[in-house]
Amino acid sequence: MATRSAARPSVAPVTVCSVLAWALGGASAVHAQTVNLPRYPAASPDGTVLTFSWRGDLWKVPGSGGAAVRLTANPSNEGRSAFSPDGTSIVFDSDRDGGRNLFIMKSDGSAVRQLTFGDSAAILSGCGLDAAGRPVAYFESARDNDLYRATRPFMVPLDGGPVERVTDAFGGHPVATGDGKAVIMERGGSA
Is there a contact between 87 and 118 (Cβ–Cβ < 8 Å)? Predict the structure, then answer.
């Protein structure tokens, strides 16, 4: 395994904490359960906790290293996750209802509830504020059944409520600015 700089050690075997700490700029290796290929890391707003997907479940680990704790455990496939702006909740996309929809839970993994309902995949981009200052989850989806089945950016309030299209433009990976007054998204794409 190549390192990005001399300050970041190569670790064998690769552990959850060392991979995430290395990826986010940490300099120390810690020993935890061996995890091969954790996916979709996300940091809490204060950077003290990281979440990631591994073997279809969500896990969290201290940003400084330590043992990973499983947050979800069911036969579905949990993917991307993001912390709410205040860090008390985690939004994630999952196929636990048959389609890929968004769910929210407390940061300890309890009180899971569904945020979106649909048969077109909702792919989480992140959480933030909307222009009115409400905490929302941003995602891309082809839920409008457009002729070309391309994705558009959407948002849904974290406290529940209807899904809202961010713009009429096609695109994906919507991310809001810190104040929620603008949303940046990807148009087109490339490998």
Answer: no
